[in-house]
Design brief:
alpha+beta; 261 residues; five-stranded antiparallel beta sheet; four-stranded antiparallel beta sheet; globular; Arc Repressor Mutant, subunit A; 2 domains; single chain; Jelly Rolls
């Protein structure tokens, strides 16, 4: 059956339905191609160049909207797709033996996730929307085919994986060797850089994640995160109005904290 070239209506995913089921023809998915996406230059920069027609770029890509709190996939589910954040934000969480959840990473517009299940064929973490959001769903088989035919696609995928590994190691080093204030300062600077790369303001932004989620990610309590933000504000590095953050002195913040990591 041929896919329609026109973009179809997009529906929110039923929270009780696995995403793999939501992608079936009966679920009437929306489709798009990379050349219609506003974050294509961040998500797939090498594929978005004029005339760079890869097999994946010619294939309509399913899109799915999720409400805050809904899962893209859960730990233990088969790894069949890679996901690109079209808008909104997500968190990856791991289930601990005592029943708690550990936030492993956050995913912003233009970023890819889902690679964690490639080694075993199953996802070791769950990914949930931390606000209403939308993802493009890329079949891994088609990604693999595109990487085999295009050196630029292969380079971008390996670069994405490498950046993810570097970020994870950096967070592990932060937790192991720095004070809580340094962790929070570095988190804000990293978030600022990632948002700036996506065309957003590097100095003023809203935290989409809660302080509890930030604490889980950085190995700190909610109270510690709040105390650190207040301390950074008193020192004149940032202003904090609930979830609204403004970095007033990024160089001073970096020199005082991030350079020590």
């Amino acid at each position: 059956m041929e896919l329609q070239s026109a973009v179809q209506p997009i529906h929110f995913v039923d929270s009780s339905m696995p995403l793999s089921a939501a992608l079936s023809p009966a679920a009437a998915p929306g489709h798009s191609t990379c050349d219609t996406c506003l974050v294509r230059h961040v998500c797939l920069p090498s594929w978005a160049e004029p005339g760079a027609h890869t097999p994946l770029e010619r294939t309509p890509i399913a899109r799915r909207r999720l409400r805050k709190g809904q899962s893209v996939f859960r730990d233990g589910e088969r790894c069949e797709f890679i996901y690109a954040v079209r808008y909104g934000s997500f968190k990856s969480v791991a289930s601990l033996r005592d029943g708690r959840e550990q936030v492993m990473s956050f995913h912003l517009p233009g970023e890819l996730f889902g690679f964690d299940g490639l080694a075993t064929g199953k996802h070791p973490t769950s990914v949930r929307a931390i606000e209403d959001a939308e993802v493009c769903v890329l079949p891994y088989a088609e990604l693999s085919e595109a990487a085999g035919e295009s050196r630029s696609v292969l380079h971008h995928l390996t670069s994405t994986l490498s950046a993810e590994l570097v970020r994870e190691r950096h967070v592990a080093a932060l937790i192991a060797s720095t004070r809580s204030e340094e962790r929070v300062a570095t988190f804000l600077l990293n978030l600022s850089e990632r948002l700036h790369a996506r065309g957003y303001s590097a100095s003023a932004f809203q935290l989409r994640m809660t302080r509890e989620e930030i604490g889980s990610y950085l190995g700190a309590t909610l109270e510690t995160v709040s105390r650190c933000l207040s301390s950074l504000a008193r020192q004149g590095f940032v202003t904090v109005r609930r979830r609204q953050i403004e970095i007033i002195d990024p160089e001073g913040l970096r020199a005082s904290y991030a350079d020590s990591v």
